[in-house]
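Thread: Newbie trying to understand structure tokens

Hi all, I'm a second-year student working on a class project, and my supervisor (Dr. K.) asked me to get a predicted structure for one chain before our next meeting. I've only ever worked with sequences, so writing a 3D structure as a token string is new to me. If someone could post the tokens and maybe explain what I'm looking at, I'd be very grateful. Here's the chain:
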Amino acid sequence: MVRKKYNTEEERKEAERGDRRRWREKHAEQVRETTRLWRKNNKQRHKETNQQWRKNNPERAREQSYRKRLAKFGLTLEQYQEMLEQQDGVCKICGKENPNGQRLAVNHNHVTGKIRKLLCAVCNAALSRLEKDRDWGKKAIEYLNEFD
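---
Reply by user tm_fold:
Sure, no problem. This is what the structure looks like when written as tokens:
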């Protein structure tokens, strides 16, 4: 086997990282199974390691967590960002940013799973209530009109 010579230690390390990445991609199923077994047999250590990583990488941890949440809707973070840009960064109903400073919610049909638009927490909660009981909306309007 011929060994390649590298100009710097960093070049050698980068080449090794590439080799390891390619091996993991080629043996993805084996890597998943080995990882699953290790986590099963080392629950406490995995938990501690994960907590430490989250503490050391708060931004990446938040992004990773949000990517997982978006995946439940079949969305990537990039697709979410595109939707947000199309709505100028505001709620589709009230036209405001989320009052709690968090990201806008992905509003979707709970029966079909079809994604609608991005809403602030207030509008998303109100719409959820209306979706469950449409008569509630009529009653709420009647109530408000009664006291005007």
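A couple of things are worth pointing out once you decode it. The mean pLDDT is 91. The first helix runs from residue 9 to 26. Feel free to ask follow-ups in this thread.
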